[in-house]
Specification:
The complex is a heterodimer of chains A (about 650) and B (about 290). By secondary structure, chain A is of the alpha+beta class. In chain A, about 25% of the residues lie in helices and about 30% in strands. Classes of the chains: A alpha+beta (about 650), B mainly alpha (about 290).
Chain lengths: ~650, ~290
Amino acid sequence: MKKRICMTGMILLFMQPVWGQIIFKKPMSPRNANYRMNVTLDVEKKQIAGHEILTWQNTSRNTIRELQFHLYMNAFKNNRSTFIREQGGRAGILEKHRAWGWIDVTSIKISNGPDLTSGMEFIHPDDGNEDDQTAIRVPLPKPLRPGQEIQVEIEFITQLPRVYSRNGYYNDFFMVAQWFPKVGVFIDGAWNCHQFHKNTEFFANYGVYEVDITLPKEYIVGAIGLLQKTVETASTKTLSFRAEDVHDFAWTAWPHFQVAEETHRGVEITLLYDRDHESAVPRYMDALKKTMDFFADWIGEYPYPNVTIIDPPTGCMGVGGMEYPTFFTAETYWNLPRGILLPEMVVVHEFGHNYWYGMVGSNEFEEAWLDEGINTYTEAKIMNKYYGKETSYVDFLGIRFSELDEQRYWYLRRVRKDRILRKAWTYIGGGYGTFSYAKPALMLQTLENMIGQKTMNIIMRTFFQRWKFKHPRSQDFIDVVNRVTGQNYDWYFDQVLKGSNELDYTVASVWTGKEKAPKGIFEIDREKTTLPKLTEEKVESAEEDTTQKTPPDLFRSVVQVHRKGEVIIPVEVLTVFANGDSIRKVWDGKERWVEYEFLKPTKLVFATVDPDRRLVLDSNFSNNSRTVEPRRKPISYLCARFLYWFETALHLISFFG
Amino acid sequence: MKIWKAFSTGIKKINHHKRIWFLLYGIQFVLALILVLPLRSQWNAMIGHSLAGQEVLQGFGANVFIEFITHYAQTVSSEMILLFVIGLVYLTLTLFLNGGILGSFSQKYGEYSANVFFKNCGHYFGRFVRLFLFSLLFIAGAFLALQGLETPCGRIAKDSEPLRVIFWLARHLILLFLVFFINMVFDYAKIMTVLEERRYMIKTGLRAWGFVLKHLWKTLGLYCLVATIGLAFFVLYTLAGKSIEVSTGLGVLLLFLWQQLYALGRTWVRLLFLASQVTLYKGTSEPVLLGE
């Protein structure tokens, strides 16, 4: 393990002359949105002055008459932006410290061509909010035909907000994200350039980013891509970064960053961290290496030469836990106990986004599940594998929570309230986390449990390989599932991806009782026979012949399984008998209920539907089983525990009396 | 009066008044039982015939708790309200019973009898309520004073996470200490009320402050000594409790008995505070005319 921790490490690295280094000999993506930016950070004003040259190619079959851009930073301009309105008009610290963020495009023109500034206008395609300034359209003087390229030069000033929702400044720390005029995506014959919402992330074309950042000399900088060169003056330095086959550019600067570096699988890992979080360094590194190993074995090797982790300093948690290509922010607290796996979980999740969002460039505005949901499913697999299935979230002071528990908690709070497939800003209040993270992860885990891990692995690998550096939609994922399995799983996705119905199977009743001896008239050997047979002398008195040898006792057992929810998925039903026998049956779930009857020389003990808990989307596991005899031990145990806790609460109260 | 003497006499007093000890424990047990019963019926409905209950016995049983708080959200919120109501009832009962307890420990009216005990309960109830309200002012003051420290602490520690954590811990520990200190002072106020038949509670509260501050090391020393016994009980309970295996019915029964034994033990400690403080006060204070 090569590990070096020193404040000047990054500076030494920056000094290496790696002028104009091409990262990939063969482009991995279409590279139709390429940026060349020259920016200066004013650390006093917390402002960035930038010059941007965008080279954009029309890869569609349509003739284009205008360009559309995101001006994300204007989400923090005032309390009437769509972003702030969607959180009830409360701007929190922005308002308290009057530390608003904004971006001004001071000029926009075609390179060596006409000025387009006067034609620029704000657009509000999502909600018609005239006060929102997070998207603009710029009419072109000449239509841009398919395959044609255009180069646009933009002058802009970005005022950073105080640390707020992924970016901003705090004292001398800067996290610079969503900060430059960024072209929208022309797809399916139209511009896809949404406003910035509280619950949406991003969508962009791939390209090459060449960014020169000028700032005071003492700052340590981390950014997307590779550092190409550093030029220093007496008080400033200019760092040149180059990133290829990515769709965003973010960077951070702080004079007090500590630096830890390692190499794993040929990838340079750089961790910029706060001195207070020294104890988390090995945890971050270990989690990242495990995640890289997992992905490499699972769907494909991480193709970029480096990855940078940013551990935000004290007071900057607002920027923690955010993904960018080859670069992400983590999260921890001072001496966080090892049993609370927050740093590990954040690293696993955010690095995973290099695949699900970074390379598979889905539309986070419109189908957030494709990145967050798939990534949460992946995160659970990794955390379960390396940190224990029962303890993959918390294992502290006797409290044990797994990733599955966490996802189910969020899911159960809003089972029927919305559906997964919906534009992210239109989810029911508080539903973004449930329907773009938790439910999709459970949906994929349920699918895996139905078709088997091996097949699921092929699906994920195929989806990744087929759609990396492209923009897949939900149907593309479904198509991969159908193709790999050779079966049509539309019925599944129609119910759980596109629908809001609930899945809940329950064993409604179980009954077992001794089979009564046959009584009455039966056709035996074509003769009417009255059973039980009577002895001759007792015929008159109709007393039974007790001397006859009786067959062994038989027990009739009846199990009734109900489908309480609307979602129909074939399910197994297991019945277990007193002698240890068990019977498994598969129910298609199409009717509302099914009844199974067994005649066996032994009593039924319990029945359980979905005994292996494959259907993790089931909203109630507790009702999945039913025992013939009551189970009193757990109840007694819970009563004893709670009785003691309540006595403790009362005892504390008594001190004040 | 020596601390140790007050402590050992306090123990003797409790041994002499075992019925009070069991009465207090019994009330606490019954009220806690009232709180558990609604939960019990819901747990019965939820896992009374389910294999899911096994998860609770085998481990933390996170899924059972998650499903309980989501599917039985109404029960959980009702339980919170019930806890608040029962808490108030218990507080009132404690204020009521303290008159009888202190009367018995001070043996003001001779030997213990139920009649005298409850007569004392009623006799001092109103005064103790006033004392309680007066003590709340001090608790609120302590709370506000520490709240006031939050801003300067925050300013000092704004860029240092370790400092933030240390300040946070320190603030809460100080608050805890102050609350217990105020509690000790007002224990003496109650003792003064009973022993000296005081009627003016603000004056008595202030005199109790005077007494405690005048005999700070003795009063605090005794309080810490008794608190150490309580802490030792807790450590013993926790360590031994961990080894109880609850997968069998006998294990669950053992756990229940162990918990109740501990609950009985800490009730004894609560009484020991009062009994030893009565002894200390009687042996330390100057005689005061009854009825002020």
